[in-house]
Amino acid sequence: MDMHKHLILLSGILLGAAVSTPVYAQSANTPQNTKNTTSDTAALLPPSSSPSVLVVAPSASSPTSTQVVSVSPDTKPTGVEADPAAPQPSAWGQILSQYTVQASNGGPTLFDYKALAASPSDMEKLAHYIQNLSVQKPSTMDRAHAMAYWANLYNALTVQVVAQNYPVKSIREIKSGWHKGPWRRELVTVEGEKLSLDSIEHGIMRPTFKTPLVHYMVNCASIGCPNLKPTPWRAETLDADLENAARTYINSPRGVNIVKGRLTVSSIYRWFRKDFGNNEADIIAHLLAYADNPLKARIVGFKKIDKYKYNWDVNAP
């Protein structure tokens, strides 16, 4: 990325950091570790809540050189505001409105990939929406706008890649080289960085936002996944929408199911256990925070999880 042309806001604690993060599960039971993606995407991270941040900006003494300065989180560096010309989610909203089939009775929200694939104009509309997102600068956005940005980009890319390869019985049939699933494919370039679905979720969203609620934002085109949000994610309603997404999933049999006194939960809570806490007790506490009665009353007595389960069938009607 040309540092002379872009103002890049980096979290001091994430600058140069390296972590090993898992990719979406490559089998129905066990996730596969991936290479470090955080260091490759550090320049795309939004401001963090750390005591200070580093700003890479043009030097006052020389317009052709750069300088790194530390600023207070209360200081708003010149030139790093979210772009007011950022694309509105109307195109993505139209795609979602036309092709999603609303969930009922705890079932998953479905998406009609076949119908979308049969519409060249809507496939082009989706491609243009993704292109418009790709030219934005998420590194300059505040936390809420950045979370909405990355979730919308991730979900739009997932819908696009499944529609391009439809019909498939499972997204895992779409390969990334020898690997199951499209998650390692480099699908988009943002601020000069080539990104895959893995790098968006595991290299940017999880380590940056540090909340388990990220898992309820992104959809992997599978029945077992939290619902594809039928409207675009928006910063203005983010907190309420995250609450609703978590509550909807946990109160569905795909998230939590108790049969014959045995507690079965989604494999998401095993694959990404560290995001939900240190042990199964922490996972159960997370479930209780969003479970409604009578499910909540039934979960209370459990000290451990008996089984993890996930359905990789594509979320199509």
UniProtKB/TrEMBL annotation:
Q: Where is this region: Disordered?
A: 27-87
Q: Where is the signal peptide?
A: 1-25
Q: Ranges of Low complexity compositional bias? A: 41-73
Residues in domain DUF547?
139-250
| Domain of life assignment | Bacteria
Q: Which Pfam families has this protein been placed in?
A: DUF547 (PF04784)
Record's compositionally biased regions (Polar residues): 27-40
Could you tell me which InterPro entries the record lists for this protein?
Answer: DUF547
Alphabetical keyword list: Signal
Q: How is this protein named in the record?
A: DUF547 domain-containing protein
